[in-house]
Amino acid sequence: MAERVPSTPSVTPDVDLGESPVAAVAPTAGDHGRPRRSEATRAAILAAAKDRFAADGYERATIRAIARDAGIDPSMVMRYYGNKEGLFAAASEIDLHAPDLTGVPHDELGARLVRHFLERWECDETLTAMMRVGVTNEAGAERMRGVFAGQIGPVLAAVCPVPDQAATRAALIASQVLGMALCRYVLHIPPAVGLDHDEVVAWLAPTIQRYLTAEHP
Amino acid sequence: MAERVPSTPSVTPDVDLGESPVAAVAPTAGDHGRPRRSEATRAAILAAAKDRFAADGYERATIRAIARDAGIDPSMVMRYYGNKEGLFAAASEIDLHAPDLTGVPHDELGARLVRHFLERWECDETLTAMMRVGVTNEAGAERMRGVFAGQIGPVLAAVCPVPDQAATRAALIASQVLGMALCRYVLHIPPAVGLDHDEVVAWLAPTIQRYLTAEHP
DNA sequence: CTGGCATGTCAACACGCGTTGGCCTACAGT
DNA sequence: ACTGTAGGCCAACGCGTGTTGACATGCCAG
């Protein structure tokens, strides 16, 4: 129970949990171009995991349910992703595709940002999953802070006219964007769900614009 | 196993789950002013439940842990609150104390609202609990929609200069307020945590003000 | 053809959960 | 003093969980 030397020589639980959170793309066609058959399974597991985490949150998204969705045995999940935490780490890999805003007219920044995140949020369920898990699970919260610091912060800092307040202003923008996502996609508050894209942009863009470019109030 | 007629004549599981979600104040000193001894226990359970739900969310807040915190046996929780759902219903009883805003100068509405909710959010953990649970649990989400429709909506509708848009505008305000709460109290995004009350008010008040009173953009 | 390894299934494990019913204790009414 | 009952504890139940290791299968190199 103390040590965990892989005694079975055949099975290699090829998960690199802990270091390099890029993870889970790991042991594919590294050598001679022939992709391993397991790639399809890995992908199926990952897709099912994203769905379940998004729909149920961390605790209620059981490995058994994910495996059932993926059409394989629960032990496969363990083999490929080590444990539930590792699976979540892989499933919550996020690329916001935050656009390069340098060159965008300053008075269009707000609208561009709102529209981008609206589309990004609706194109797959990963962001909903991240939010559902981030609220209950410390690892999920850490991941969200990481996305904020690594992907939102820098992009906004590049165009913020008050560079030393960039972090604060990014947090304000995050609060409005995440708040709208929470009301629309998670809590399903009716009037928030009822708005169409253009209306959301029309309402939120001036707010984002002000948080980004206004003088400190 | 099929029917559940209380066979033991002594124990009366006095929980009114289902009807009148005011609940859990139930069987106190109804008769001659002599409070039952159990009131202290009920209160201890409720306090512990609020803490645990706030800290851990619905699934990870176990009845056993709540009972341990309250210094009593898990079966007591069942006796007083029926089941876990009933306990949560009682623990998430919420009164926003939404202030009457009629009479407040129109250009101060934003600041008043922001400051009120900031203080309300920090005075106890019930709101954090509601948010943590509302994100993962449908009953929790329903409760949040109820608070929105029953406590936030009406107060704002009373002062909204565009009455037929009051619901939409209330949702926008909720999105900003809940978003800031999410970033500060749940996700602990550093720049959001670092703001003091006055700074939050200074940044958010104009947003709220605009959502409430501006013309439709 | 044969051996080895990747892929996948099956059955079981230990554990913690919500929940239950029986039992003990102390106190209030008579 | 006796008794009923409210308040509380205890041990157990059935279940679903994450996780494990032994076993089956099929593919590819030699």
UniProtKB/TrEMBL annotation, chains A, B:
It holds the Pfam family TetR_C_16. Gene3D superfamilies: Homeodomain-like, Tetracycline Repressor, domain 2. Keywords: DNA-binding. The keyword DNA-binding applies. The keyword Oxidoreductase does not apply. One of its GO terms (molecular function) is transcription cis-regulatory region binding. Residues 62-81 bind DNA. Residues 39-99 form the HTH tetR-type domain. Residues 1-39 are annotated as: Disordered. PANTHER family: HTH-TYPE TRANSCRIPTIONAL REGULATOR RUTR, TRANSCRIPTIONAL REGULATORY PROTEIN. This is Helix-turn-helix transcriptional regulator. It comes from Streptomyces piniterrae.
